[in-house]
Amino acid sequence: MQKLLTSVQMRKADEHAIANLPIASIDLMEKAARSFVQSFLRDEFDASKKIAVFCGNGNNGGDGLAIAHLLCNNGCENVKVYILNFSDKKSKDFLINLQRLDESRCRKTVVNSVAELKNVKADIIIDAILGSGLNKPLEGKYAELAGYINNLNKKVYAVDVPTGFPAEGKIRADYNGVKAYKTICFQRPKINFFFPESAMATETYEVVAIGLDENFIQKQETDFLLTEEADIHHILKPRKLFSHKGTYGHALIVSGNTNTMGAALLASKACLHTGAGLITACIPPSGLIALNTTLPEVMALPREEFTRIENPAKFQAIAIGPGLGISIENERLLERLILSNQPLVIDADALNMLAERPDLIERIPAKSIITPHMKEFDRLFGDHDSWWDRVITAKFQAEKLKIVIVLKNQFTFICLPDGKIYINSTGNPAMAQGGMGDVLTGVIVGFLAQKYSSEDAAILACYLHGKTGDELATERIVVNAALLAEQIAVEIKRLA
Ligand SMILES: NC(=O)C1=CN([C@@H]2O[C@H](COP(=O)(O)OP(=O)(O)OC[C@H]3O[C@@H](n4cnc5c(N)ncnc54)[C@H](O)[C@@H]3O)[C@@H](O)[C@H]2O)[C@@H](O)CC1
Q1: Which of 6, 127, 130 to mutate to test the pocket of ligand 1 (most atoms within 8 A of CB)?
Q2: Which has the closest alpha carbon to 133: 179, 176, 89, 100?
Q3: Where does the signal peptide begin and end (predicted)?
Q4: Which of 219, 248, 276 is the last residue of a domain?
Q5: How many domains does the chain contain in total?
Q6: Which of 132, 202, 207, 213 to mutate to test the pocket of ligand 1 (most atoms within 8 A of CB)?
Q7: What's the pLDDT tens digit per position in 286-301?
Q8: How many CB atoms neighbour CB 385 within 10 A?
Q9: Ligand 1 in contact with 25 (CB < 6 A)?
């Protein structure tokens, strides 16, 4: 798992490298610039394109000067540097690189105000104005400049972080910084790149190594962690010789309704392909034929009005919610399961019913996993006007209720009872189709049945669900839920 650090911690990692590795501060900047240029030239190899490099006065600006110098030396014929004289505070390495640029044949101009920027003719802009040193929202000349750059409507590459974009913390809905096409950032992604609002600041990002000490970075205390394939390989347990269906647990999935029986089928199918030993679907009687014809391996427990799950303890894992429908009977069933005090996976309509019963939220059994998307989450825990605030609430509630909260999004946040937040990086827009959430619930309950801890089951399920979707999306514009459910077994086999 990769630790994601705040700007202050990243600065410490820079200082650590300078103090402990045989590298001077200015050489670290040169290394960062080289890494940026390498990545940039892979994308933009046409040496005749006009490139405008905007440089601030701190180390981000220093990077920009070094980048411009390297581009000129690498055959880019039309590089022009705009040095913004907006602050008297100039960093040491900025000044060294300014002198190096002065001695080169790079074209440059010093700009004191945005009004002086007439006739900027560029195909590509490199934004090296403000980086991770940002300590307040943009205003005055800086805000005006960001607006000016955005209005040029050119392809913008940001150095480390787009000017005006906070690397962590709340992103304002009225973001007024630079809107980049791509950000090439150093050593680690910024925490905020995983928040949906980052789409206002950068379309995409790439992380390039600059030679910081990985051991030092991994030793830092942080609540934000990025799941990697190696973690999945490490958590997954192989299926053993002499094992039998009892070894892999019995999952109960309370789901489906007359018009939403598909959700029950998808969750059950996903659970099946995740490897649970036995699966019982608690479904309305109207869904029996559909279940028996499409998933003959899955047993049925018809859900009548008066259904009780007589002995929940006989199941190793229970999920409730996909396509369930909202009714008094279903609410009673949910209540009984919650009061049985056995960990549950709670999804979809079960979450919507919970939102109306704050008394039950407090009693969700410890180690349960809830899987809300943004709207379900806000119904449960109140409205939020930013994803940062929402994730902080999720972290707080996961710790308080001792449960796992899987807050679903492009990058799903998995908040654990110990306060850690695992960010899932797999998954893609081809998966944006009904039924995907039902499949995720089925995968989670499938892992729980096999006695994975709640934390591991959530981390594994999110990663594998997204990764399977990524593999399928290499050949398809859209990946449907049933196909993904079936393919889960293949991906588990590949990563086990
Ligand atoms: N040795 C290092 O520390 C390295 C730093 N690197 C670069 O250095 C950057 C960080 O540099 P700095 O810490 O010098 O900071 P920046 O260059 O991001 O910002 C410069 C200064 O601007 C001021 N400022 C902050 N917010 C402002 C606002 N809204 N309006 C006006 N002024 C504002 C602050 O006083 C800040 O120190 C990174 O993003 C990265 O690009 C890289 O060169 C890698 C090595």
Answers
A1: 130
A2: 89
A3: none
A4: 219
A5: 2
A6: 132
A7: 999 999 999 999 999 9
A8: 11
A9: yes
What would the DSSP string read from start to end of 232-255?
HHHHPPPPPTT--GGGG-EEEEE-
> 383 and 491 in one domain?
yes
Atom of ligand 1 nearest to the CA of 10: 3
Instruction: For residue 11, give the nearest of 189, 133, 159 by alpha carbon.
Output: 133
Record the tokens describing residue 399, joined without a space.
């710790």
Ligand 1 atom closest to Cα of 128?
Answer: 41
Q: What are phi and psi of 85, to 5 degrees?
A: -90, 65
Q: Which two tokens stand for residue 468?
A: 């399977």
In a domain, 224, yes or no: no
Which residue among 30, 59, 69, 191 is best mutated to probe the pocket of ligand 1, counting the most ligand atoms within 8 A of its Cβ?
A: 59
| Mean pLDDT confidence for 384-390 | 97
Per the confidence metrics, is the pTM higher than 0.90?
A: yes
Q: What sections of 74-113 are H helices per DSSP?
A: 92-102
Task: Provide φ and ψ at 156, rounded to 5°.
Answer: -110, 130
Burial letters 401-421, b for 16+ CB under 10 A, else e: bbbbbbbbbbbbbbbbbeebb
Phi, psi at residue 302, to the nearest 5°?
-60, 135
CA of 186 to the centre of ligand 1 (A): 13
Q: How many residues does the chain have?
A: 496
Q: Which residues are annotated as a binding site?
A: 59-63, 127, 131-137, 142, 160, 163, 263, 323, 373, 408-412, 437-438
Query: Distance between CA 491 and CA 471 in Å, rounded?
Result: 9
Residue 119: left (phi > 0), alpha (psi -120 to 50), or beta? left
Residue range 296-345, pLDDT digits in tens = 999 999 998 767 888 899 999 999 999 999 999 999 999 999 999 999 99
Distance (Å) from CA 220 to ligand 1 centroid: 21
Domain holding 300, by residue range, is 229-495
Q: Which of 192, 219, 246 is the last residue of a domain?
A: 219
How do strand 224-226 and strand 2-3 relate by DSSP bridges?
antiparallel
Ligand 1 atom with the smallest distance to the CA of 137 is 29
